[in-house]
What does this fold into?
Amino acid sequence: MDPPTEFVKIRVAIADDHAIVRDGLRRLLSIEADIDVVGEAADGRDLLDHMQEWMPDVILLDLRMPNTDGLAVLRTLGSEKNPAKVIIFTASADKNEFVQALRLGCAGIVLKQTAADLIVKSIRKVNAGENWIDVHIATAAIPQFARSVKVTDAPIKSRKGARLSIREREIVALIAQGCKNKQVAEKMFISEQTVKNHMRNIFYKLGVSDRLGLALYAIRERFHFPQAG
It folds into this structure.
């Protein structure tokens, strides 16, 4: 789909220690009218040194690089509260690395074998404030991440200032652990339609649009869940 007639280009920076990967990404993105590759770095240190110059909206970031790796870059960007959104672009299959990247605030994880059109789509989605994570990564990493969240009855305050009810917090906990609506209904002894109704309210309160966004928001915000199920 072509971008609208009037648009602001998405400024993208690429950080990967393999020149052939950087070249391939640059060629792929250069044909997109709404994307501008503003810089390329061969390692994390090089990227960080050029952040003020490039001012990227989205960073395609390899995890394993010399000098300063992807996780170290995420830590630095987080400590500096840099507004750039990060998509981990990796060949790694290590779910522990994915969990660490999620904890450090990456907005997306894309495997290097991903189809070209999906790489472009991930950039647009992440730039628009959504999350983009390969379904296989989400299935492996998010439940592991959710299990590390402390269990407590502390209230959850949403982005819109409303607070989730105890029942809603229980549902968020189960969703973050990878449960589907039917499984949530069975664990909570309620109907699947009731779960769907609660989900609509939760989406509205938290300002997210889908289950993945809900799970990642809950995990990133360090939500303290009551015991669910």
